[in-house]
Amino acid sequence: MTSSTRGRGWRGTEPPPTGSAADDAEPDHESVARAIALRLLTSSARSRSQLAEAMARKDVPDEVAGRVLDRFTEVGLIDDAEYARMVVRTRHAERGLSRRAIAVELRRRGIDDELAGEALEQVDSDDEEVAARELVRRKLRSTSGLDAQTQARRTFAALGRKGYPPGLVSRLVREELARAGAEDVDSIGGPDLSD
Fold first, then answer.
1. Residue 129 falls inside a structural domain
2. Is 181 found in the same domain as 138?
3. For residue 194, is it within any domain?
């Protein structure tokens, strides 16, 4: 190695003439599939469907992806039921999403309806109402300088985006505004309030 190339690494033809890169210029599909699954599962849990989609984007044949995913499921690295339960717990507790919104997210992540339904049983209607009431209180506190109609409209919008049913939100908004001493709470309508 001359002094002009020292420290800059090997500069020759690609791939190098010796070593593992020379022996295996193109990895097989199964190795690619395993590498994709391991890389994605290292960063966070994933559904089988999400991993299959990632493999398809890298042109891994379906039968190869299926074999790798079956093996990962067999050894417990992929567990859609546990994954669904984890998504339900975190989305409800951390983001305050309703069961309906979580169901949409699970479907988008490739969880079948039966597994999603079982996972969603962790959150009952009482849990959902407690979470909705806390969100209503937070939103009303953050809009406390505004009139009751504007507070209600913004609260309806915020909880609607989280998937809560309008009837529940309407009842909770009226209750919380009345508790806070707002006047004319009965005139507050549903989510279609106009400006």
1. yes
2. yes
3. no
Sign, CA torsion 104/110/116/122: negative
| Segments forming the whole domain that contains residue 62 | 29-74
pLDDT of 39: 95
Chain segment 71-112, per-residue pLDDT in tens: 999 999 999 999 999 999 999 999 999 999 999 999 999 999
Q: Are 36 and 26 in contact (CB under 8 A)?
A: no
**DSSP readout, 90-152?**
HHHHHH---HHHHHHHHHHTT--HHHHHHHHTTS-HHHHHHHHHHHHHHHHHHTTTS-HHHHH
User: Whole-model pTM above 0.70?
Assistant: yes
Per the structure, the count of domains in the chain is 3
CA atoms within 13 A on the CB side of 114: 0
Angle at 61 between CA 60 and CA 67, to 5 degrees: 95
